[in-house]
Target: FBD domain-containing protein
Amino acid sequence: MAQRGGEVAAKRTKLSSGDAGGVGEDRLSALPDDLLVLILLRLDTAAAAVRTSAFSRRWSRVWALLPELRFDPAPDGRALRGILDAPEAAALRRISVTTEGARPESAAAWLPAAARRLSGDLVYHNIAAPPMSYEEEEKEAGEAVQLPCFEKATTIELNMGFLGLALPPQGVFARLTGISLRCVRFRSPCELGDVVSWPRCPLLKKLEVHDSRGLDNLVFIDSKSLLLIKLKALRSLRKLILVTPHLQELSVIRIFLHLDEDPSEPVANISAPQLESLEWNEVRIVNRHCLRLLQRFQALYSLVLTLVYKQDINDLQCLMGDIAMLPQIRFLHLTVLNQGHAFGASSFHLLRMCTDLRELSFGLHANGNMDAQSTCPSGCICDQPVSWKTEALVLNHLKRVEIFDMRGAEHEVTFVKQLFIWATVLKKLRIRFNYRVSESKAREFCRALAGSSRPETSVEFYMYDVSTSSTYLLEPEGHGTGF
Model:
């Protein structure tokens, strides 16, 4: 055994002596560069790849041939800049950096070096807890990170962890096709719209800005290339102006936040003649403004709408009276926040304006009290006018319906029965029960629907198993069709 251990030690010494004794390269180092690069790409991080330079002079230059560098976690900003600025380093198709609670000076140290090296994708994620209040935000703001112009980058994804970010006042992002900005405090002097508009971003197709601050005055985007824009949770934005002739998908979610001190309404002016999908969830801009936007379109591929029922409904006109016209829609996702109220009348009001509908997704959300879901206060108008239960409605293109968070209430049974009547070519109905609904309650709901569907309609019911955090198909009782 001792002799065998000595042989192994001797072999290890020989393999690692390439530079020390001039004997020659070890066998691993003798492999071609492309194979060595493949080996380094399988290491956890770029920092680990850089450390292989200590093996020998042969290895000292191999890491610089990597097409991608990933630092998770990243070294301090100066060390990272040193790696990116190495003279032997080649152009990179991807740089991915993860930090935790980084300060502005750390990010500012390496970003210019990344801009010089990168010819592909940049991903930077600074993990940091969000400030709890506006005062804390101002206190923790610090200096802004100056974003350089990435002239050769194809995509940029920045999660700044609420660090300040100053956009470059000049330069062209000539190859950029996508940019995603999260948890950013935008700082002057350059506006976001100036950077992402044509001609500074002539190829930009996707723009996403989430959970960010500092876009107080105006976002004016004039782009001939943008196809998708997603804006979500932008504090105190007052104006949104889009001139986007080729835009296909627009998502606007709670971007006009924290404007309580200013009684004037925020402004949204959007020119997007080729828009196919619109998601608009904005509390501050009231229904009539959203409807004016919808009425500019003749047809939309998909539309996401949310109906909010206050617990005390006292005005039917306020409930649905403003909605008199919708574009022709192929796919409708309807979310109902109903607080226990019946939603059949209002849903009927919308569906009779969507006769070209192909698919319907229905999400039901109410308060957590299951006992409160089946009854309304005495004299409630939520089910008015009751004529919706007898009026003719033909949805002769609707083939697929999915309903989430069903509670098993009587008004839900009534609505589904009517849906079977309206949807004359329905092929698939899938119902998912709320996780608090018992199996016996679900089967009671199924029995109430027995005989309502057409033979050609496939109906499936799904339960949620809390113990396994998964859903399962509710098997039919006896030999039925799912009821």
In short: Residues 1-23, 370-374 have pLDDT under 50 and may be disordered. The CA atoms of residues 29 and 311 lie 73 Å apart. The longest strand covers residues 155-166. The chain has 13 helices and 20 strands.
